[in-house]
Amino acid sequence: MKDTKAKVLFLKVGKVTITLLQNSKRKEMISGIKKYPVSNSFLTKTGFRDDEQGDLEHHGGENKALFLFSSKTYEEINKQCNTNFKIDEVAHFGENIILSNISESDVCIGDIYRLGEAKIQITQPRQPCWKLSANTNIKDMTKFIFQSGLTGWYAKVLYEGMICVDDELILDERNYPNLSIKKLNQLIVNPLFDEKTTKEALSCKELGKPFFESLSKRYKLKEKDEQFSVYHI
Predict the structure, then answer these.
(1) Which of 39, 80, 83, 123 is placed for a possible disulfide with 208 were both Cys, Cβ 3.0 to 4.6 Å?
(2) Which residue in 191, 192, 175, 184 sits closest to 208, CA to CA?
(3) 187 with 198: CB under 8 angstroms?
(4) Torsion over CA of 187, 157, 228 and 133, rounded to 10 degrees?
């Protein structure tokens, strides 16, 4: 029996744009964060064929080829922030896909899923940066996403293929049930929250390199770690 976890509610792609910023220490935002709904797109090893990223040092690439978000996460952000972000509009958080019936608690590092014609593997949580605040026009949004763990998650592409709205997300394999996206987000805030799981995460070969490096540094430096200060303003 197939283990269907969710369905694709919305699929979004976008080109790099330049947004002028006001009341910010940065004058402009050059980014592909503004993605718009489409009915389908072909998923390659480095992302949707119709999609772009503006900062290839921190976004995109094979281990961050696909950024998935949840309708439940949208609802929770709206609830906690008293906002009214719509899931059928331009991507407020840079998401490629919005899924039903799933959240950061339900997805684990290393999970392998079938999605339309493609097959993907979960690599890491999204690490929020200042562009979330800029794109939503809410000063503390980046800090809120970081602290709340309502981040969404990245995947790499094992097999390329077409993905369409209403396609099912089907779990094929799970090898790290302790390493949910929710748990990883708790550990990046405080690695000593669950030191045993922190060590398990740092030994997990499927964990994305950027998140591994951030967690490793945070675990070693603890309260002296200031790696996120630049990106959270």
Answers:
(1) 123
(2) 184
(3) yes
(4) -110
Task: Give the separation between CA 84 and CA 192, rounded to whole angstroms.
Answer: 34
The residue with tokens 């979330």 is: 132
pTM over 0.70: yes
**CA atoms of 52 and 186, how far apart (whole Å):** 30
d(C-alpha 33, C-alpha 11), whole Å: 14
Q: Is residue 12 a contact partner of residue 38, using CB atoms and an 8 Å limit?
A: yes
The full length of the chain comes to 233
Contacts of 144 (CB under 8 A, 6+ apart): 77, 80, 81, 138, 150
* Residue with token string 């603890």: 222
Report the distance separating Cα 54 and Cα 34, nearest Å.
11
Domains of the chain in sequence order: 3-224 (2.40.33.20)
